[in-house]
Design a protein that fits this description.
Two copies of one chain form a homodimer.
Chain A lengths: L1 E3 L2 E2 L2 E3 L3 H5 L2 E9 L2 E2 L2 H15 L6 H12 L4 E9 L16 E8 L5 H5 L2 E5 L19 H9 L8 E4 L5 E4 L3 E6 L2 E5 L9 H9 L7 E4 L3 H5 L3 E6 L3 E8 L2 E2 L4 H12 L7
Parallel strand pairs in A: 8-9, 8-15, 12-13
Antiparallel strand pairs in A: 1-2, 1-7, 4-5, 4-6, 6-7, 9-10, 11-12, 11-14, 14-15, 15-16
């Protein structure tokens, strides 16, 4: 089921700048019993990114109505919301009065093995690096060729996720998730001011860490920090939290802190227990 | 007029990865008396970029037929060809058997003032920087948010084009064109192995310089090189060649070499005299 600007429709005008330039943003929600989880966190990110790109973000109440109408009967599903700048002429210059386009689509819940969440995954480190640009960093915009190519690197491998670095050797995230480290009973996650996507689950963990009496620091991290961590996990809205069992030859014990974070986010209804 | 996969149609499936991720490439042709100019240069770039992205480039003969059918009656027009990876499911991973999408659209010739080409333009230097990523550099892919934001920076100004640097302070190109410098009767254009688009007119100039008995060097350039050049010009398939009269307080004389390059490219039918 797909809604474009509130109408059942799965065809977009070729003039839309999402097609021409990737000129837009998106959000991927987990839907549970008809409810799009972490709504406020998603909308907050969408609104702040809209301001950065100069796109007029549609009214959240309208988005909520449309999202509800499409997901109300879904027990468990993935909902994708795309906001593009709208239609424009040829050329990069902004159209003088663009009406943003809303594309809302409902998708099947992915069949990730249950043990990814429960027992953890074996990960690798991508060879390809991500670019740095503070003007684009943090946003979930529609320019995602880097993620496409990173994911392509994993094609045919047994790694469901991988650590991704930027061209300056900083650890940034996974191909499709954020990354957290646990060291000395404290949480660490990479600074994303130059590269990467500020994920909604990452933001939820940062905000909720205190309630677990955990310190959570955001700072530049290198691959050695990952390899020397006590625990490592990836997180996103659909996968939830995937503990890392192993990267290359290094085995991580899946200790208590990752479990506590997982449980808290499930209890708070930010992610879905697989 | 718009053709999608050979059929008159201006609506694209929302499942197309051009919309979802900007997962594709494009070419912008000048059309003169029904002919898409610099065909071989455009197709060569499209094919080599397709290989880099792992997209199966459609048969050039098919593209030629479709392009001709849409542009045959145009005296002067702009033709845009988009090749996306095709439709896919949700998620970055490549679809197992994607059929690339061909989108061909014909547009009005832009009304750039004639004196941009004949007398030159006043340019500026963009504040925003471009990211560096050798994996994406050079290609005219659909991830163009940087260009959208660069162009936004010029909104309301009198500058039709601007010099753009990367985050490492290298001069890369214009917002929508490539840049050449002339110094001591020699041509220079920035190395684009880390950032920027390898434009078709740029490639034409590199290939044809020898026929003008001009040396043309591709190398890293900084803003001082631009400001100390004897002549500076921007080039792209539609604008042609725009000499630069002035950047900030520096005035460039529009000397003979820019004129000779302009004339050669018009004679070789790579650009259109305005």
């Amino acid at each position: 089921v797909i809604l474009i600007n509130g109408e059942l429709n799965d065809k977009l005008s070729v003039r839309d700048r999402a097609i021409q330039y990737g000129d837009g943003l998106f959000e991927t929600f987990a839907v549970k019993n008809g409810e799009a989880l972490a709504w406020d966190l998603h909308i907050t990110r969408l609104q702040s990114s809209s301001i950065r790109l100069g796109i007029e973000c549609p009214d959240p109440a309208l988005l909520k109505r449309e999202v509800s109408s499409i997901s109300q009967h879904a027990r468990r599903a993935v909902l994708k919301l795309i906001i593009s700048r709208g239609e424009g002429g040829r050329g990069y210059q902004l159209p003088t009065s663009a009406l943003p386009t809303r594309i809302i689509s409902l998708h099947e819940w992915p069949d990730y093995p249950v043990n990814y969440m429960n027992e953890g995954i074996v990960a690798t480190v991508c060879k390809m690096r991500m670019a740095c640009n503070p003007v684009l960093a943090g946003m979930k915009h529609l320019n995602r060729l880097e993620q496409v190519l990173l994911k392509k690197e994993l094609l045919g491998s047994d790694f469901p996720e991988a650590v991704v670095l930027d061209i300056n050797d900083n650890v940034i995230e996974g191909c499709m998730s954020n990354i957290f480290l646990v060291k000395n009973k404290q949480l660490f996650t990479p600074d994303l001011s130059n590269s990467g996507v500020e994920g909604v689950v990452r933001e939820g963990i940062v905000q909720l860490a205190e309630s677990l009496k955990l310190k959570c620091e955001i700072l530049p991290l290198q691959i050695n920090d990952v390899m020397n961590a006590d625990e490592v996990f990836f997180c996103n809205s659909v996968a939830g939290i995937w503990p890392v069992k192993k990267i290359n030859d290094k085995i991580f014990t899946m200790e208590s802190i990752t479990r506590r974070v997982q449980k808290l986010l499930i209890d708070k209804n930010l992610i879905i227990a697989q």
